[in-house]
Structure formats: structure tokens, C-alpha cells
Specification:
676 residues, nine-stranded parallel beta sheet, globular, alpha/beta, seven-stranded mixed beta sheet
């Protein structure tokens, strides 16, 4: 049945047998005989879903109004005959040369006034009326042509919106920004109040006086910067909606999405805000090869993607079979890593595994980016891995539609990320994700899965809630977090949380403003640490980055207690870790960033209090995640990224081997146990 969470009740999963498997297919790069060979190879690999025509505008419309769909017609027909479904793109991710030459004003402009020219990709501004007109026309032409094609299963709208260029400073962008501000605030007086323009004589008499934040003598107005980040995120989703409106009109029963770039490195778009416009959440994820714990970053990104999806199954629309081409040093994946990466995404909620791209290009900027069919062809380890992954995914069909189990929530807010890393703050070394990733890592190593949730989400189903560096928060969200603690949850709030409201106005009366009452503390001054320095708490924990002058305050009910104090001058004896019982739960506060051992020790205490345990007992570190279907069946994923065998206490059949689970996950291997 279509997921009740999709905005229009449209589901791509009804069109796909089992888990989705495939990738970006760019047949326009190849002659017909290669395209025919592709279909046979796809059947060998078990491919059932492909994204098609993402960067094909220049060939589909080589000159204005002159269309050539012959090659795409053949591709769609051939894929259908092979039983392969298509996520058909709108072909709008890179405008053709003739369009840019005719309308150079569609090109993006940087904060320094530099116009970014054609010859690459993503060379347009989403606020351009001209570009929107042409993009919606191309979308309509494609939709009308293929609306009844039996291969069409999903619309792939544009591609990686916000990639490469995420801020736009041209004249048309400035005008769109002003209109957005006028709709947001209603009056210039409200904007002046929100931006605090009484400071530095920044008062505005009309919206027409406002420009996007650009190069300036010194730091810019933080309210203006925050609203410009909001505007740019909105501009892209508004552009998406313009194309989506055409799709809904012509193909009202075909679901649509665009591929997000949810990761620990992508902050420019508010994907929680975007999610309501998607029929299915799709994400692109690439490892950073130099990261020795890249599988943990993958887990972080996959968990965050599932959070954006509201816990529903999602699509991994792109990742790599091996090396990429755009990092400083592009190493291949290690033996078994592609399988482990792919199934780690499935373990954390993905019901489709796709790659960039199907066949490795022989020319162009990404010719050294790995693909499902490498330059070396079938007689390669990559191809054998691709076929093996297809076989593995076919065996995991029972997992389809199940949901990931979690009793731990990590509160995540893109607006808080933007606001917390503005300039003129107590420490430019502070990063929004530092504490969050540290706690997520500790949970991962303990076999505990966490859900990422927006501050406005329902928190009632969680035993443990982590609120990390939630610098800005609304009154409503702060009250919801406090209510969760009163209702029985263990809630941890870290440093630099609750400091400002949604306008970046400081909550007066002492930090951490929005959470003072529930925590039973008050901070009078921050003491950020210099890079490379550390401190030691009274319990032996080593901290870095941050410290502050915390006071325990008198409050109704239970008094907060100091569980650890600072030992460094001038904060010797000042609380660094506190706990306050409230209702049937507890509210903890952490005033520094502990090292890995300190984070792990604190995580253990929090899990014990919250009565949260690992997905299974294991003899050593192994990635453990459980998915559970609506009928109660449970599937334990055990992924061994190490070089030693690991024992896991679980009973059931291993779906991958087809045998009874032996209790051992070999080095570098994966087991998916259908539990008894």
C-alpha cells in the first residue's frame, strides 16, 4: 500500500519488485550497440531501477524548440522490455549552451559579484524567471511524451539541488530575497525588530533598501545572514515546486522526488522543511576516503536521511562502487567495502541501493569516477561485486517496507546549524556537529541506533533524547523537549544550546536561556578554550573546546546536582556536568566537549538510566541495527567492518547465506538475521 506519510499517497515501492537496485544511466554518452549490451548486463546484475536523462537537455533539445527524443524512446522501450523501471529526470540540472548564450542573466552570481559561466554544471539561479520558464517547458514536454510509458515509475526532478552553488547574489536573486522578506515579515518595522537594525545604524525604511549579504568591511548582520540562508533553501524548493506542479498536472499518479545530499558536510538546505514535498526521500552519499572511520559517518548520514524521511523507507539514489574523482586523493574502496556500505544504508532504512553511475564514462569531468560497469568491463572485481550485491539485495526482499527500531533521539535542526556557525560568536572553533557526531559515534560503537528528529517532532516515544548545540530554538520546541523530560525521558542538553530564539535574539536572564528552568542551572559567562588546549573534570574526564561559569539554581521540585566539576582556574569547583530529576524523567547538562573516552562513559550512564540496550550482544565492535516489519518480523543487520571475526548473540536464519546463523560474522562480512 502507498505510504500514508507521502504527501499525495503516491508510492514508488508499488512499482518495484523487492529492493530497488541500479543507478544513474547516461545512455546518451554511448552508441546504440553499447546501449543494447547494457540491457543484457543489467539483467545479469539484477538491476530493476535506473535514473535516466539527468544531464541530457543539450541533446534532447539541441536548439530552441528542436527536440530529438529518438534515442530516449528506444532506451525507455528497451528498459521496459527488460523489466527495468525508470526514474525519469526532468533534464534540467545543466542548461544547454544555446539557452545560456541567449539569456546570460540565468547564470549564478557570487557574493563578490563574479558570474559563474557555463562549461560545468548547475550554472543557473533558481530565482531566474527565464530559467524557470524554460525548465518547466522541458519538464512538460517530457511528461507529455512519457506520461503513459510503462517503464515510468518515478520522476527525478532536477539533480542535487544546492550542489556547488547554494547562495545567489544577482539582481534577480536580490529582488526575490526582498519579496521573500516582505512575505515573511509583512512590514519593514517587523523586519527591523527581527534583525536588530538599531545596532550599527542598519535601520531600513523600505524593503527596496535591502540587498543580499555580500562582501562588507566587517561582520554582517546575523539576522540578515540567517534569513538569507533560509531564503536560499526556500528558493530551491520553490523552483522544485514549479517543476513538480507540471508533473502533478500531467502525471498525477506518478510519484516524484529529487536527490538530497544529506551528510555531515551538507548544511545549505533545510531538508526537514523540504521533506513534505517529496513522495519518497532520496539521498546521495559519498565516503570521504581519508576518514579512517568513514563507515561511522555513513551511519550518521543514513540515520539523518531516515530522520528526514520521518522513519519511512527511503532511497539511496547515488553512491560509488569504488573511488570517486573529486577528492584530493581518490582511493578505491577496500575489499568488501562496497557491499558493506550498501547494506549499511539498507540496515538504516534504505529500500533502494543505486549508484553513480551505470557505465563509467570515457570522457568528461567524471571519467575517473567509478561505476557499476568499469572501464575494464566484466572481467573486474568491481563488476563481480556489482553482480554479488544484486544477488544479496534479491535475498533481502523480506526486509522491504520494514522500519528501523530506535529508542534514542538526536535533535537536529538545520536552522540551528546555520545560526550556531555565524561569525562574532564566543568561539569560531565551535561546530554544530561536534558533540552530535561524538555521541552518535559512541552509540554506534555500542550497537545502539539513534533517530534524528526535528525539534518540533513528537518526542514521546523516546527513552533518551540528546540535544546537542541547539543554539537557536523556538519557545514551542523548547517546551516540547522539557515536556519529554517531565514525561519520563532522559534528556541531555549540551553547551551552547537554547541561547537565542528563531530571530537570533539572545534569551536574557542567563544561559542556556530556553532550558534554564528544566535544567535547574544558569550560566553567567562562557569560557571557550583555545585550539589545542584541554581541561580535566573532577571525575577525570578530559574536555576541550568549551567551558562556562555554571550555577545551580533554586527551582521548584528537585534541585540540580553537580555530577562533575571543572578543575581549571578560574572555574575550579564550577559544575561541568549536572543532572536534575523532573517529573518522571531527568534533565542533564554538559558544559564542555569530552574526549572519546569521556563521551563513551557519559553515554553508558545515559543509556543505563534510560534503560536502552544494544541491538544484540557482540564480542567486539560490529555495526548492529534492527529493522522490524508491521507484522512483527525483525531483521538484525550485523556488519563487521573489522579484520577479525566477531560473535553476535542472535538466533535465526541468515538471509544472505540462506543458512542458520552460526553466531559468527566473519571479518569484513555481513549477516542479516531473520530473528526467531
Amino acid at each position: 500500500m502507498p505510504s500514508p506519510e507521502t504527501p499525495h499517497g503516491l508510492s514508488v515501492w508499488n512499482h518495484i519488485e523487492g529492493l530497488g537496485y541500479g543507478g544513474d544511466y547516461n545512455p546518451e554518452q554511448w552508441p546504440e550497440h553499447i546501449r543494447l549490451e547494457d540491457v543484457e548486463l543489467m539483467k545479469e546484475a539484477g538491476v530493476n531501477l535506473l535514473s535516466v536523462a539527468i544531464f541530457s537537455w543539450g541533446l534532447l533539445e539541441p536548439s530552441e524548440g528542436d527536440y530529438d527524443f529518438g534515442w530516449l524512446d528506444d532506451v525507455m522501450d528497451n528498459l521496459h522490455q527488460a523489466g527495468i523501471k525508470v526514474a525519469l529526470a526532468t533534464a534540467t540540472a545543466a542548461p544547454p549552451a544555446w539557452l545560456v548564450r541567449k539569456y546570460p542573466e540565468i547564470l549564478p552570481v557570487t557574493a563578490e559579484g563574479t558570474k559563474l559561466e557555463r562549461g560545468s554544471r548547475r550554472h543557473y539561479t533558481p530565482s531566474s524567471a527565464v530559467y524557470r520558464r524554460y525548465a518547466t517547458t522541458m519538464t512538460r514536454v517530457l511528461a507529455e511524451r512519457y506520461k503513459d510509458h510503462p517503464a515510468l515509475a518515478l520522476w527525478h526532478v532536477d539533480n542535487e539541488l544546492g550542489c556547488h552553488v547554494s547562495e545567489f547574489h544577482g539582481e534577480e536573486d536580490a529582488e526575490a530575497f526582498r519579496h521573500w522578506l516582505e512575505r515573511r515579515y509583512g512590514s519593514i518595522e517587523e523586519l527591523n525588530e527581527a534583525w536588530g537594525t538599531a545596532f550599527w545604524s542598519q535601520h531600513y525604511a523600505s524593503f527596496q533598501e535591502i540587498i543580499p549579504p555580500g562582501a562588507a568591511p566587517t561582520t554582517l548582520n546575523p539576522g540578515q545572514q540567517l534569513d538569507f540562508a533560509r531564503f536560499n533553501s526556500w528558493a530551491f524548493i520553490d523552483y522544485y515546486r514549479a517543476l513538480l506542479a507540471v508533473i502533478r498536472e500531467v502525471t498525477p499518479t506518478v510519484p516524484a522526488t529529487t536527490n538530497f545530499m544529506v551528510s555531515s558536510a551538507t548544511k545549505s538546505l533545510d531538508y526537514f522543511d523540504w521533506s513534505k514535498d517529496m513522495d519518497v526521500i532520496a539521498n546521495d552519499h559519498y565516503l570521504v576516503a581519508v576518514d579512517p572511520e568513514r563507515e561511522i559517518e555513513l551511519a550518521f548520514s543514513a540515520d539523518l536521511t531516515r530522520g528526514v524521511a520521518g522513519g519511512e523507507p527511503w532511497m539511496l539514489m547515488e553512491h560509488s562502487t569504488s573511488a570517486v574523482n573529486w577528492q584530493p586523493h581518490n582511493q578505491p574502496k577496500m575489499p568488501g567495502e562496497m557491499l558493506r556500505n550498501s547494506l549499511a544504508h539498507v540496515a538504516r532504512g534504505a529500500d533502494a541501493v543505486m549508484f553513480f553511475q551505470w557505465r563509467q564514462s570515457k570522457a568528461g569531468s567524471e571519467k575517473f569516477h567509478s561505476a557499476m560497469v568499469p572501464h575494464g568491463g566484466r572481467d573486474t572485481e568491481i563488476w563481480r561485486n556489482v553482480v554479488g550485491l544484486g544477488e544479496a539485495l534479491s535475498r533481502l526482499e523480506p526486509v522491504k517496507g520494514s522500519r528501523v527500531e530506535s529508542r534514542v533521539a538526536i535533535v537536529f535542526d538545520y536552522e540551528a546549524w546555520w545560526a550556531s556557525e555565524l561569525d562574532s560568536h564566543p568561539s569560531q572553533s565551535l561546530k554544530y556537529l561536534d558533540a552530535m557526531r561524538a555521541f552518535h559515534r559512541s552509540l554506534y560503537l555500542r550497537g545502539v541506533t539513534a533517530d534524528f528528529v526535528h525539534p518540533s517532532a513528537d518526542l514521546s516515544g523516546y527513552n533518551l533524547i540528546l540535544v546537542c548545540t541547539l543554539y537557536s530554538v523556538t519557545d514551542e520546541s523548547a517546551a516540547s523537549i522539557a515536556a519529554a523530560a517531565d514525561g519520563g525521558a532522559t534528556v541531555l542538553v549540551t553547551y551552547f544550546s537554547g541561547i537565542v530564539d528563531e530571530h537570533d535574539h539572545v534569551r536574557l536572564g542567563g544561559y542556556p536561556g530556553a532550558f534554564r528552568e528544566i535544567l535547574g542551572i544558569r550560566t553567567e559567562e562562557f569560557h571557550p578554550l583555545f585550539p589545542g588546549t584541554s581541561l580535566t573534570l573532577s571525575d577525570g574526564t578530559v574536555g576541550s573546546l568549551w567551558s562556562e561559569h555554571v550555577h545551580l539554581t533554586a527551582s521548584e521540585g528537585c534541585q540540580a546536582e553537580a555530577l562533575a566539576t571543572f578543575t581549571n582556574y578560574p572555574l575550579d569547583g564550577v559544575p561541568a556536568l549536572t543532572r536534575r530529576s523532573t517529573g518522571t524523567g531527568a534533565a542533564w547538562y554538559l558544559a564542555t566537549l569530552p574526549d572519546a573516552d569521556g563521551i563513551d562513559a557519559l553515554t553508558a550512564r545515559l543509556l543505563e538510566e534510560a534503560k536502552v540496550t544494544s541491538a544484540a550482544e557482540a564480542s567486539a565492535a560490529v555495526e548492529l541495527t534492527r529493522r522490524r516489519s508491521a507484522d512483527g518480523r525483525s531483521f538484525l543487520f550485523a556488519i563487521n567492518h573489522g579484520r577479525e571475526d566477531v560473535t553476535v548473540k542472535a538466533d535465526g536464519d541468515d538471509l544472505l547465506s540462506g543458512l542458520r546463523f552460526s553466531g559468527v560474522v566473519p571479518a569484513g562480512a555481513v549477516a542479516v538475521i531473520a530473528e526467531d
